[in-house]
Write a structure and sequence with these properties.
It is a single chain. With 315 residues, the protein is an alpha/beta fold. It folds into two domains: 144 residues, Jelly Rolls; 148 residues, Rossmann fold (3-Layer(aba) Sandwich). Helices cover 38% and strands 22% of the residues. It has a five-stranded parallel beta sheet with strand order 10-9-11-14-15. A four-stranded antiparallel beta sheet has the order 1-8-3-6. A four-stranded antiparallel beta sheet has the order 2-7-4-5, with no helix packed on it. Helix 3 packs antiparallel against helix 5 and helix 7 packs across helix 11. The protein starts with a helix and ends in a 10-residue tail after the last helix.
């Protein structure tokens, strides 16, 4: 479908007014529909065209007559868009100090009625009901956005990953944290993340996104000698886990636990991440005593930083 084809649907004045009457901010108000038809300009957009660009200061509003558009904020696409009978661009049209808060692009051929901000303000001043409907629509959009903002945890949530060999140590640390009042700790082994023949990375992504802290416990088997150098470095699986934690939680909430006698050299990508050493021991009582200093360091660190604000990454 060419751009002009979708616009031609509304070139007849009667068809255009009928489409405007269906708009959420008009709702069968004949006088408002006629006024918008008088001042508006029919526009057509092809799939991929940018209709509104974030951070621009133009103030045109658009009534979507047909087709759908996508929304992108700071380079991140939203999981929902807008479609026929929605208005876009009204916030900047109303408030001259507000730049465009999102980029809007056509995801399929779109027909829209372009309305200048002065005309929109004038028509709105003559119709209190239109202002009320615009306010209702803005609150609906805010509520829709809020559904995709993760709630802040009431208590710190800790996500731990360990190899199967390191599980007894990880369990002792989890138990120590629980005794210190940090009861929301989830423990996964490598086998749960990388089971044979399966790729449950979406599960890992979901769990990390819910967490406030990510802890990777490296067992001696998870360390290796750097080729050609006298240095100990984490194996690839540990590096992967740390990278995943840091990409979502930031380095201040990413923690690597290593054997106390291992002088681990971190890859350059993990500059600023200091490993915490733990002592190994046999038996449950022995492990409880051995990991007590680590538990105390973790407790103090978590008490200092608290829960993570999902609105401020890295907080």
């Amino acid at each position: 479908m060419e751009e002009s084809d979708i616009v031609k649907r509304f070139e007849d004045r009667g068809d255009l007014v009928s489409a405007i009457l269906r708009q959420r901010v008009v709702q069968n108000d004949e006088a408002v529909a006629q006024a918008l038809a008088d001042v508006g300009r029919l526009r057509g957009f092809e799939a991929g065209d940018t209709i509104i660009a974030q951070q621009r200061y133009d103030r045109t509003a658009y009534l979507l007559l047909a087709g759908k558009v996508g929304i992108t904020v700071n380079g991140c696409p939203f999981p929902y868009g807008r479609e026929a009978n929605d208005m876009i661009g009204e916030m900047s049209a109303i408030n001259p100090e507000l730049p465009r808060t999102a980029t809007i692009h056509a995801t399929e051929p779109v027909a829209a009625l372009e309305v200048g901000h002065r005309d929109l303000l004038r028509i709105g001043s003559e119709s209190r009901e239109m202002w009320r409907l615009m306010a209702v629509e803005l609150t609906r959009k805010i509520e829709q956005r809020n559904q995709f903002v993760d709630a802040t945890n009431k208590e710190p949530r800790i996500f731990m990953i360990s190899s199967t060999e390191g599980l007894p140590i990880a369990e002792a640390i989890r138990d120590g944290l629980a005794a210190a009042g940090l009861t929301d700790a989830v423990l996964w082994s490598d086998e749960e993340i990388f089971p044979p023949g399966a790729y449950p990375l979406e599960n890992l992504k979901r769990e990390v996104a819910l967490a406030d802290y990510g802890i990777a416990l490296a067992h001696p088997d998870d360390l290796r000698r750097s080729r050609g150098r006298d240095a100990v470095v984490p194996r690839d699986n540990v590096v992967f886990e740390l990278g995943w934690f840091m990409s979502i939680l930031d380095r201040h909430r990413t923690i690597l636990l290593v054997p106390e006698d291992a002088e681990v050299e971190m890859p350059s990508d993990f500059k600023g991440l200091t490993p915490i050493g733990y002592r190994q021991a046999r038996g449950r009582k022995g492990l409880e005593t051995a990991v007590a200093p680590v538990v105390e360091r973790l407790r103090r660190h978590i008490a200092r930083r608290g829960v993570r604000s999902k609105l401020q990454p890295g907080s």
